[in-house]
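Before the break, one more example. Copy the sequence into your notebook; we will annotate it together after we see the structure.
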Amino acid sequence: YNDNGNTKVKAKIYNDSDISLEKKTAKAKEIIKNLNATLPKYKYIDFFDVIEVPLEKTTTQKAKRYGINVQ
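Here is what the structure looks like once it is written out:
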């Protein structure tokens, strides 16, 4: 994601459990905060979305970097 020349990292988190969206979001914020503390600034996760639909995958079960996953 590019914001006026500044590259930003955005993560998508799939909620595959019965945990509520609020709890999943709070847990994701905590995990991302801890992860960002170990990463260089240019790799920080700046934004994230908790999604209800699994990411589209390739035949080798890797998340596609194009198509509906990019939206």
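Strands lie at 2-3, 6-7, 9-14, 45-51. Residues 21-36 form the longest helix (16 residues). Try to locate both features in your own notes.
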